[in-house]
Amino acid sequence: MECMNPGGTGKDRAARSMILCAEEKGELPPPYNASMNANTAERAIAIPRDISNTALNNHSNIPDDIHAAIVTALENTKTHGILIEGTSGSTGISLASLACTRGHGIIVAMPDDQSNQKKEFLEKLGCGVVVVKNCSISNPGHYVNVARRIWEWLNVERRYDDYYWTSVVKCDAGGNTSNDRKNSSPPKLIRAAFMNQFENLANVTSHYRSTGPEIYSQLDGNVDAFVMSAGTGGTLVGVGAYLKERWFESTQQKQRMTSQSPPRIILVDPPGSSLFNKIKFGVAYASQQSEQKLRRHRYDTLAEGIGLDRITANFALGCEMISWEKKAFAKRLNEASNEQNYQQIPKDGTTSLLQSKIIDDALSISDQQAVHMAHYLLRHEGLFVGSSSAMNIAGALIAASQMAEGSNIVTVVCDGGQRHTSRFWNRDFVVNEWGLKWPGDNVTDPIEHDILHQLSLNVK
């Protein structure tokens, strides 16, 4: 139930890890302490406002919505630090929640196919939000590329140093903002960090060090399968790596190969994502990516925050052949972080019994299956889940039906339905926009029957 985290999402762990890593590297300032600066201790959270009269200076060619988001973040930071991220929303919410506690400002670029609730929540947390059209990562307008460009404007080109000094810092201090530094350059106070969750290995590390050990401990190591979807791939790969590493270590300690198989790590993938085919066939492509078949948005799925049309650094680790000696994945993470060469398999191409990839298999789950799964959970378990969680649980049920009786199958409830009422839990949107069935509309097909039919499960 990762949706019970303070940020209401399973992304809290990765967000915390990425922020701490950035602070440790000096990319962000240390967290705020009220005794550091009494002038900012009681500053209220600034919300997006009309910036039409704001002096533009070095940022006259920056779009108004991006400028407004930057101004909001600069007015909210208490440390001179700014977090910047491109996200479908959930990671942004986690980062924004933690940014509040640590005193940093935050800017989020997100695609326009996400629920309005996510954007509104981000703004309530004092986040500067930029909404862009969803498109391929190769497009400069992709939300990740927009976020990176904002980071460059702040941290590399230093285009907001003068505005921040004259309009924010000195105003807080009650100083004269007009002529006292007219002929000198403003101090370089802003420290902006691009979180880059898709390629940032602090993401997968957080799950390798926390989520994986928690699951292993709670089930006394008896995990037969871990099943879930992937956005960045951090949770799936981090948890999967820890579970497999512990299994192989325990097997080596017994000095024998048991008849029991290592835990199976299974990807759940929505329509339009290329990750399913990457695991199944080694090719990162989905038929929905054909330009002739694209819908209004890049992915042909109702699900939010999962599925990709590219392989990220976090996900790529799950596709490598790993030799499972002691702390194998920890060593691999260190090598990847230092961009060292890594020998994935023996030169002769052979593999031993102590070698495997982290991700073993993949399941493709349809939007209709996810919708039915979500309604079934609400009706019978009292769980109001979002689209990602519905996909995960549907995948776990299918995996369980293919494994031996008594197997322990683990998945993650990573999002609640509260942030999905405008899309996934909106009947008009689901039926009229996506052409799907709304469970319960047909009284002759009760949800109990439909969920078994939708998932192709035969239960006697």
Model description:
With 460 residues, the chain is of the alpha/beta class. The chain is 39% helix and 10% strand. The chain has 15 helices and 10 strands. It has helices at 12-25, 64-76, 90-102, 116-124, 143-156, 161-173, 202-218, 234-253, 275-281, 313-317, 328-337, 367-380, 387-401, 427-433, 447-454, and strands spanning 81-86, 105-111, 128-132, 191-194, 225-229, 264-269, 321-323, 355-357, 361-364, 409-410. The strands form 3 sheets. A 4-stranded parallel β-sheet has the order 3-2-1-4, with helices on both faces. It has a 4-stranded parallel β-sheet with strand order 9-6-5-10, sandwiched between helices. Strand 1, helix 3 (90-102) and strand 2 form a beta-alpha-beta unit. Helix 12 (367-380) crosses helix 13. The longest helix has 20 residues, at 234-253. The protein is globular and about 75 Å long.
Strand content: 5-15%
Apparent shape: globular
Helix content: 25-40%
Element-level helix/strand string: HHEHEHEHHEHEHEHHEHEEHHEHH
